[in-house]
Amino acid sequence: MKFIHLVIALTMGLLAFNASAKDYSKEPEVIKFIDRMVKEHKMDRAYVTSIMQQAEYKQSIIDAISRPAEKRLAWYEYRRIFMDDNRINKGKEFLTKYASTFAKAEEKYGVPRHIVAAIIGVETRYGGIMGSYRVVDALATLGFDYPKRSAFFLGQLEQYFILVREQNFDALALTGSYAGAMGFGQFIPSSYRSYAVDFDGDGIADILNNPVDAIGSVANYFAAHGWQKGAPVVSRGVVDATLDESVLNDSLKPNFTVGELRERGFAAEDEGLDDDLEATAMRLRTKHGEEYWMGLKNFYVITRYNHSSMYAMAVYQLSQELK
Hints:
Blueprint: H1 2-21, H2 28-41, H3 45-54, H4 59-66, H5 69-72, H6 75-82, H7 85-97, H8 99-109, H9 113-124, E1 133-134, H10 135-145, H11 150-167, E2 175-176, H12 189-195, H13 211-224, E3 234-239, E4 256-257, H14 258-263, E5 266-268, E6 278-286, E7 289-296, H15 297-303, H16 309-321
Antiparallel strand pairs: 1-2, 3-5, 3-7, 4-6, 6-7
Helix pairs in contact: 2-3, 6-16, 7-9, 8-13, 9-13, 9-16, 10-11, 11-12, 15-16
């Protein structure tokens, strides 16, 4: 019996080795990708081919993206991941250490420092955990071996090659999340190219190692996605017997107004909100029942970072703890 178990273990290990060691550059879809990079972006064929030869398939990446916390956990389970004392205390220290940078970002982009800090806190514990997967492995694995979202990740792999050329990065050296996100704020390659800023004036937009650039870049991302300076983010919701449950968790995008939701039995606890403000209605499951929230335009902007109402609520609530 022990011999059989040993054979099974060796076989599984060999299969895992073969999967990770496959030569992406010989696959038809990868060859098409290389052709496109050469034709459309004037890249050296030998260089792109060499990078793809060294890219490795990672089953753990497929496993991780197939079971995101936002889809498998209830709100109360998800919330406690981010609302621990250590993350809150480190956030306050981070805000103090880079107070002048946060003030500058707040002034330039109109995004509250506590929101920016909360994003970095949720994403990487303020730069403490930025991911250990090689970005090229993550994007190749998801681009060529995850059909459900292959188009998106092939687009990111394309953006990655352009990024490393622009920034003179080593394409095989950069590490990040299982989805290919990098740096303090976990920007995917297209976001790096579009929203990363040189916030300390040294001529380099470095969100991988420079927290000053990272703070400015996250604030810039929010401003570019429509953050409304001084506007509210959420309000607790109050429901009555006339509640039309079809409005609950209808969409991340605010498809109703505050007034329309009130007419459907879902009112804002904050009575000072204008009736014409765009809003969305949420019901979140807690350990002891349900709670209701009304998300406003700035809440929707947070979901542009991660398309999840629980993610946006975690960021918001952490930001309140950091004040």
